[in-house]
Design a protein that fits this description.
By secondary structure, the chain is an alpha+beta fold. 24% of the residues lie in helices and 33% in strands. The protein has an 8-stranded antiparallel beta sheet, covered by helices on one side. β10 and β11 form a beta hairpin. The protein is globular. The two termini are 53 Å apart.
């Protein structure tokens, strides 16, 4: 293992991780120049279309340095806050990390958060300033800020603690251009010199940590693993300790970056293992895979490895198929996505207007978007997706606590002693010239300022505590808009606090439409109700009778719109003649409309749900 190096690239979103990975692939000859393309490791169409990394991507590279061959296992990671769990899993499979900072934007919120995650895993950090070729690059300023963040004494070597966590000297902060390849070779060789080789014992029984997985219709579930101890060979029997599942190695291999089969994987290596297991629930991220003999009792197996803390979803949305016949297809698609994204959860639910669907849990609004787009693009499903919302907590009159995942679960006001909502610690880093605009959108939240820090020479760190529901939809885009893309944010869920919350119900032609209900602040019920009613008036098709749209809170109408009846000109066929004939026809039409209104029921097309949910 002395010639193995396992490492990740971590950074804020759009700081150049995937571009740096491209240069490493070229430099090591892993991908021939004829096959090379930008963002090579971003294999999903969705990633390439959006220009962001959504999934971690492992790759095995070979490089000769100082006349010795080295195996370099790189994991490229996402940068967006909603995919932090991807980052944390990749960090547990490696010994070192390249911390990448954009010289034009400097330290950002996710830079700090990802650094903290790497420190928790005791990884060696190699600090790097990227995009030094750009004319607007603030190289020295970014370098100084990075040295301050890593607590590197100016002009001195950092004193290494007994912990494996360490950083380079300030003058060893690497200055690179990933796009042009400047100093990338020196950086790759620094990975070999500085990052320690893996630890483990090839003589011990086989143990491997599952850090990701995917479904293959022929090979079963393919587990992405980091081998800690021992070795495993093709055809071996395997056992997953947590799920207590048994399987057989159908295929082993490396990521080159496509699958490359081999006959064995051994201690220190990163690779994949086709289990032959077809049931998604039997393979879990964070589980320990070990080998066993059919004659050996399972109770005598090796100790499990420390797994991962399973993330709790903080945002929920309902997903329904447009075509009710696609329910089973949707269920199968969600099960397969769950394999590839263990932070995603789902459970069945039914709504009268929409039929059968699923209530799904996500780590944020972008995570919601990505999952819904993958369901459409990878599985060909047309979906109705509700607006993302948070989980509320209710304390009833008997002092019992329970969680509310959707407005339909909201109890009657008389049963509620106290309603609570989740709050978050919001951290925003912004250049000082945009401070006024950023404060403007922060002051519109129902939160409070906690602390303001000056960060580096031109950055300000704002720390607020805010209701989480205030920042899950639209806030990030607003922040980017007012700061011309230079401000960044990170958040951490704090817990629950009391909120003045009510259920806003929508009645269409006197009938409650549960799918449009929302949990809102009491003082904003009129504004929210009016917005929904106006939008429904705009998108609902007209009927032969007038249709009232009412927003109601606790039985009281707080907003109303009316869709006028479609009018058929019943007197058009009459040419002249007695007016009483025309009047008789008009009266008959009026009576018919009244009867229709009393008996009629509005059928809401699926496009209306899509339009309303899309507009939040």
């Amino acid at each position: 293992m002395k010639n193995f190096r396992n490492f990740v690239i971590i950074s804020h979103i759009d700081h150049g991780k995937s571009t740096l990975a491209d240069r490493f692939l070229e430099l090591t000859g892993t991908v021939p120049k004829t096959k090379m393309r930008e963002q090579f490791l971003d294999s999903m169409d969705l990633e390439r279309g959006r220009g962001i990394t959504i999934k971690m991507h492992p790759v095995r590279m070979e490089y000769t340095f100082d006349h010795k061959p080295y195996i370099l296992n790189l994991i490229d990671t996402p940068g967006h806050i909603d995919f932090n769990y991807e980052v944390s899993r990749s960090l547990a499979a490696v010994e070192g990390a390249i911390l990448l900072v954009d010289a034009t934007k400097g330290i950002q919120a996710q830079t700090i958060h990802n650094l903290d995650l790497a420190k928790m895993q005791n990884l060696l950090i190699i600090p790097v300033v990227n995009k030094i070729d750009l004319p607007q690059a603030k190289i020295e300023e970014t370098k100084i800020s990075l040295a301050q963040l890593l607590k590197i004494p100016e002009g001195e070597e950092s004193k290494l603690s007994s912990s494996p966590f360490a950083v380079a000297r300030e003058n060893e902060i690497f200055l690179i251009s990933a796009k042009k390849g400047t100093n990338v070779k020196e950086l790759l060789e620094a990975v070999i010199k500085k990052i320690p080789c893996p630890r483990g014992n090839i003589e011990k029984p086989f143990r491997a940590l599952v850090f990701d997985s995917k479904y293959d219709p022929y090979k079963g579930i393919v587990a992405f693993i980091r081998v800690i101890d021992g070795k495993i060979e093709l055809g071996s029997k395997i056992y997953l300790i947590q799920s207590k599942s048994e399987g057989e190695v159908k295929e082993l291999g490396y990521f080159k970056p496509e699958f490359q089969p081999v006959k064995e994987l051994k201690s220190g290596e990163i690779g994949y293992l086709a289990t032959g297991i077809k049931e998604p629930g039997k393979i879990r991220v964070g589980d320990t895979i070990t080998s066993y003999s059919v004659t050996q009792p399972l109770s005598h197996l090796v100790e499990p490895l420390p797994g991962y803390k399973v993330p709790k979803p903080v945002v929920f949305a309902s997903i329904y198929p447009e075509n009710p016949d696609d329910f089973e297809n949707l269920k199968e698609a969600l099960s397969r996505l769950k394999l590839n994204d263990s932070s995603f959860t789902f459970e069945p639910e039914t709504k009268e207007a929409l039929g059968r669907g699923f209530r799904c849990g996500f780590l944020g609004s972008l995570h919601t978007e990505i999952v819904s787009e993958r369901l459409k693009s990878e599985f060909g499903l047309n979906l109705i997706i509700s607006t993302p919302s948070v989980v509320f907590k209710i304390i009833d009159q008997k002092n019992k606590e329970f969680l509310v995942f959707s407005p339909s679960d909201w109890p009657n006001p008389a049963e509620i002693k106290e309603a609570q909502e989740p709050w978050a610690k919001l951290e925003i880093i912004t250049p000082s010239q945009y401070l006024g605009r950023v404060l403007g959108i922060l002051n519109n939240l129902k939160g409070k300022a906690i602390e303001t820090k000056y960060f580096g020479t031109d950055k300000i760190l704002l720390i607020y505590e805010v209701p989480f529901k205030e920042i899950i939809s639209g806030f990030y885009d607003n922040l980017k808009g007012v700061s011309q893309g230079f401000a960044s944010m990170n958040y951490e869920i704090l817990g629950y606090k009391k909120g003045d919350l009510v259920r806003l119900e929508i009645l269409i032609a006197g009938r409650k439409e549960e799918a449009f209900s929302k949990i809102v602040y009491k003082d904003e019920a009129h504004k929210n109700g009016k917005k929904i009613a106006e939008k429904l008036k705009e998108v609902l098709p007209s009927q032969l009778f007038s249709v009232p749209i009412q927003a109601v809170v606790s039985g009281k109408v707080v907003a109303r719109e009316t869709i006028s009846a479609k009018r058929k000109d019943v007197i058009a066929p009459l040419y002249g003649g007695d007016y009483t004939r025309k009047k008789k026809l008009l009266e008959k039409q009026k009576k018919g409309k009244k009867e229709l209104k009393e008996k009629g029921r509005i059928r809401i097309p699926s496009r209306v749900f899509l339009e309303i949910f899309k507009n939040g």
